[in-house]
Model the fold of this input.
Amino acid sequence: MAYYDRSSTGDTLARGLGWFSIGLGVAELMAGRSIARWMGMEDKTNLIRAYGVREITAGVGLLALGDPKPWIWGRIAGDAVDMATLAAGMEDNPRAGNARIAFGAVVAATALDIVCAQKLHQEEAAYRRQPLPDYSGRSGFPRPAEAMRGAASDAPIAEDMRTPKILQFQPSGPA
Amino acid sequence: MRALVWHGANDIRCDTVADPEIEHPRDAIVKVTTCAICGSDLHLHDHFMPGMEKGDIVGHEFMGEVVDVGTEAKGALKVGERVVIPFTIICGECDQCKRGNFSVCERSNRNKAMADKIFGHTTAGLFGYTHLTGGYAGGQAEYVRVPFADRTHVKIPDGLTDEQVLFLGDIFPTGWQAAAQCDIQPTDTVAIWGCGPVGQMTIRSAVLLGAKQVIAIDRVPERLAMAQAGGATTINFDEESVVERLNELTGGKGPEKCIDAVGMEAHATATLDSMMDRAKQALMLESDRAHVLREMMYVCRPAGTLSIPGVYGGLIDKIPFGMAMNKGLTFRMGQTHVNRWTDDLLRRIQEGQIDPSFVITHTVPLDQGPEMYKTFRDKRDGCIKVVLKP
Done:
């Protein structure tokens, strides 16, 4: 079972990164052209919008899809793609300075993502070190469960709770 | 008095609030000796149920001692008597109550107009469970006002501990009704999704009612171990395909009876539909996650029955109703008609046929309740059922 604790430090950080992802994604989607122009990479407008969709998906994943670890690793992979795109876009770019600022921001976000992933994995490892409680003796019955099968078949169950005869599974063989 | 109070999503606190008083001649005041956190309380904690207001006292599984009785309830209750209070408040006089359909009592919801608008027709008032069901103060508190107390109670004889009888107020009859409304036959395989407290009670009920085979589905190892102890064959959906395993266990025919003891917060599995549900729920495009319902419709044997004790709050999406229609499935669902079952179940506890306290894994003072909500929600520390002592 994948472990995650929605009250933990790692999860809180993951949720923060989830909201950041959604905010960044919406900005990239809605203002892709302006962002591309600011970085001197107008030819990458559609790519930046696509990255926006990726960010929103990661954000929803982190906030709402249970175990945040796969989504954080997804963000780290996305960060690598972002850095590669920015690095490639800096050549012969009159606005390379802006692209460098963006690159620095991605590096900072990546560092946070890595810290978050490490924290989440540490929390899972700590949980797994704890011994599992043993509930194998908790039947609630005075005798083995097999011996209790049908012990309440005399229970008073009114007709409205019964399946109408016509809808019941009939015994096999000709009617 | 001290009580657990809802302040918003993920924010339940132990506050000091005003003591309850008799407001109507049919009321009683109960001093709570033991109460519990129910799985459906988590829907309030996580704020998936609409209709909560800041300051609402939560909790609907509780019992205690009668300390004050209104003039019209004196014939039925006396100060000092020990009672379990059913989570459904019942008048005992309306047409539905007379039919035993207590969870849809027509008179106990004091916010009937609101419920009529939302549900089409009102259902019963409930303790500590949104203003849609009356906005009544709940039982995770030192004292509770019990409306319609002359009918809304189960008297507890001496010789039984609180822990043995507490669950008569909700999860035991809920599990029992879930199994009973399947009309279990000795040839039936009953598959139960969810091994939380209601699932555990449902497993025992299905065994007692004589199912040939009971199969329990979950992913939490300690819950599966407890299910196995109760007589179930288990499926860990993290490790194996539920559909394939159920087919294997039923000779390819599918279980005749399927029970959803999970409800609106089904865990996000690796399946596309459950991931879509989580995303849609987060974006407020649907209120409930219906993975279990879809899976039950798919695996159930044609002409079988689906029983749904799991709580749903609003809208679900992408339900394969054509599949259900063509397979001729019967749906049984609803909140529990608690008082319909309690006499029989109390007798079974007295006779030692079952001891529902097996499910309790944590007992703490009331003021640790807020922390235990999180432990229970996150299934930490082997938590299956939390009992609180005010």
